[in-house]
Design goal:
Length: 428
């Protein structure tokens, strides 16, 4: 016993302390792995049953991931399977409670199914609706995020199944409507566990191509399980961040995949998608002809209306005989000129008469007229003046006492005289 205890003390405590000279016994590694795995909690997982074999009280099945090429073998007691209302079959979609176990003797890892439940259509629809509400709350379906499709796309990216009817419908109907349209086709799996990865890869490749104006994701109708890839959250988020407008053309009216909500345009069928992304050349040519006819009629009406206006203007007297306007204005000018000349002449004559009258008045009041009537102006000789009289004019006899030399001014000249005295006239 003492030797076993001594050997135990030399065993490394951890895996990092082991070495070629001091290894762990295989039993110890298995025990430690089993202890570590036993501590791992059970987990509910979702998958698809691709294999199922019953062997007595045990059953062995293989679960595959819904969206990826990953599978996992597991074992289950048959009494767990017998509790199901309907027996599980290959292809069933289930959720299972798995617990990892290590079989100590063989060192084999086993996934033990503690409980298993089939996923019905109601469960799938409820799960899709929960995801739809969650993405809508994030704003991924908002109209503000949706991009407008080009009026006439030159190249269309098409993601569809290999040699599918959806592909033929889109190509045929688009070519019938607009023969010059070009397509960049990516054939991918549109159902199964690889569909999501392939559709996302094709979407990103076409979105990175600057020549692609719009991308159509098309698939014909199918069961709800077949359409599940188009409600995958990873695919929905890839569509929401694409810079190229996306058209969803999943031909299934009863159950709408979430792709219809996040796409920039939803078409009810692949044929409807072809009709909505390219215009009809026949209809467009008809619209062009209609527009040209409307334009021609509009121009014709305009020319006719303006022609009538010109004719009406030319028929007016002023344009029919333009000289009338000049001659009438000439007569007006002549009349006004005559009136102006007469007015000026009258004013001049009146002013001349007034001037003659004023001259007569002035002359009648002039000293010369007084002299012409026989009067004379007596002044002191030499132009002297008596103080207080001014100008030497004799106005009073006292100004010329006897012997005073005088100058007498008459109408035709003057002469000298001498005062002999005088007297004031008697008052009446």
């Amino acid at each position: 016993m003492s030797e076993d205890a001594a050997a135990a003390t030399t065993v490394p405590a951890t895996a990092a302390e082991t070495s070629p000279d001091n290894p762990w016994p295989l039993q110890l590694l298995s025990q430690k792995l089993k202890m570590h795995i036993d501590r791992a909690p059970s987990a509910w997982v979702e998958g698809q049953v691709i294999e199922l074999n019953r062997r007595g009280t045990n059953a062995y099945l293989t679960l595959r991931d819904i969206d990826a090429e990953i599978s996992l073998p597991a074992s289950v007691w048959t009494n767990v399977l017998d509790r199901q209302e309907s027996p599980l079959e290959r292809g069933s979609r289930v959720v299972a409670l798995l617990k990892a176990e290590l079989w100590l003797k063989t060192g084999r890892l086993n996934m033990s199914v503690k409980d298993i439940r089939p996923v019905g259509l109601g469960d799938l629809l409820a799960r899709i609706e929960r995801l739809r509400h969650a993405l809508a709350a994030e704003g991924l379906f908002s109209d503000a995020r949706k991009k407008r499709l080009p009026l006439l796309p030159h190249r269309i990216g098409l993601i569809t199944g290999r040699n599918s009817d959806a592909k033929k419908d889109v190509l045929r109907n688009a070519a019938l409507r607009w023969p010059a349209v070009e397509f960049e086709v990516r054939e991918v799996a549109v159902q199964g566990n690889t569909a999501v990865a392939q559709v996302i890869a094709a979407l990103r490749e076409l979105d990175a191509d600057p020549a692609v104006d719009v991308i159509v994701i098309a698939r014909g109708g199918g069961a709800l399980e077949d359409l599940l890839p188009f409600s995958n959250e990873e695919l929905i988020r890839a569509v929401s961040v694409a810079s190229t407008p996306i058209v969803s053309a999943i031909g299934h009216e009863a159950d709408r995949p979430i792709l219809d909500d996040v796409a920039d345009l939803r078409a009810s069928t692949p044929t409807d998608a072809a009709k909505r992304i390219v215009p009809d050349v026949v209809e467009e040519l008809a619209r062009v002809r209609q527009a040209r006819d409307q334009l021609r009629r509009g121009v014709t009406r305009l020319v006719e209306r303006e022609t009538d206006r010109l004719a009406a203007l030319r028929s007016r007297p002023v344009l029919a005989s333009p000289d009338v306007m000049v001659s009438s204005r000439h007569d007006d000018v002549e009349r006004l000129t005559g009136r102006s000349r007469a007015a000026v002449t009258t004013a001049v004559v009146r002013a001349s008469d007034q001037l003659v009258h004023l001259k007569a008045q002035v002359r009648a009041l002039s000293p010369q007229k007084t002299l012409d009537r026989g009067y004379a102006v007596v002044q002191l000789a030499g132009g002297g003046s008596t103080p207080g009289t001014g100008h030497g004019v004799v106005r009073h006899p006292d100004q010329a006492p006897p012997g005073t030399p005088l100058t007498v001014r008459v109408a035709r000249g003057r002469f000298t005289a001498e005062s002999t005295g005088g007297q004031e006239p008697a008052e009446d």
